[in-house]
């Protein structure tokens, strides 16, 4: 795969869009490194390709399978009419049975490296292009932010990985050994520190491009993962005066009219239409049904594509009474029919829901449900960092430094916006649990839960318990293998894809 990274970057100009806000398309052309990286316009087109890579690396099926379904937030509706390998791989990611041949896991790994390759080309060719220092800095800052973003995913999901820090131009560049986790984090931190000096401060309305605030948030996330809470506090507190705020209503955060709002630090950009930039992640989350129009308003069958990332009733039960985020995040499709072919009769609120006798109930993710005119063609962006990340990150960083009273000043605005009473809890242990709970419900279905469980050391305990819940809830159904949900320390990382092991002679993660 590695030797193809450079070629992959060049061919993206035939596939991706181009404009100042990277939402328009690039004219189709044939390019090479020798005739392309010469003008500011060309580098802007290259930057479009680098941003577009985020859609595949962090907005894809692999992203929500590995980040959300791997956690205790969601499960799946078993489709006994489609036993294709792609479906089984998604199930096995949920069941902790994925292996080295998983194409889903390989897709996550490869897509991150494609994004890294695109960023590397920009970084490498800029010094010789003769552009102004201001332009060069602006582009370098964005490219280093993106490279850090992709490597941060790789190191958290796979551990130490090969570090490609320059454009791959031949076989001698393409086969690098795995670096250590510490070495990968050092590159990420160095990239972000440099990016912060080069990126602009946020300006509103935002364009969707990386800013100094986004880089500081990513750096703080790295520090939280490393348990360097003092450094995380410093970065996060520098974001607070930059003009961001919580929107008054939680549901409105995800509204199409609030894309790149003052609550958004960074989000994946999508645009509905025929330009190939639309989102469609709503549809896999809907029931397996011959018609989902009662949910979407568009007559369309979802008998094969749906049934994924289904909120569990345990997840619904974890919301505190009165928490507005529950109804904003989840709805319940009610109807009849067998598993795999539901007839949807109504869409109900999850608040106090009791399933009537003879009915089926299918909870689904509601926060990405918005009006659209074409099937599988939605306009929703996908959040990566919001201002509530800053506030809850500060609450965590401060609490872990025994500054629990100060932590409440950042935790409570998030709770109050959700319709809950401010917390007065100052016990470090109790507040730690409360912050973890707040993160679970605030960022539900934003692909953060599994990574939060791992970095806080709770993954094994929580997911083994969740396995017991899932097996009890689905008792009598035969689709769950007896070996599912056996979560061991080796399962905290995903396997390095087998193809990379074979062609690059890389060492596999333990347990695979």
From TrEMBL:
Superkingdom of the organism of origin: Bacteria
Keyword Membrane: yes
Record's keyword terms, sorted: Cell outer membrane, Membrane, Signal
Domain SusD-like N-terminal, residue spans: 21-224
Principal location listed in the UniProt entry: membrane
Record-annotated RagB/SusD domain positions: 314-512
GO cellular component terms attached to this protein's record: cell outer membrane
Keyword Membrane in record: yes
Compartments, as annotated in UniProt: Cell outer membrane
Pfam annotation, one family: SusD-like_3
InterPro entries on file: SusD-like_N, SusD_RagB_dom, TPR-like_helical_dom_sf
SUPFAM superfamilies, A to Z: TPR-like (SSF48452)
Family in the record: Belongs to the SusD family.
Protein name (Swiss-Prot/TrEMBL): Putative outer membrane starch-binding protein
Species this chain originates from: Larkinella arboricola
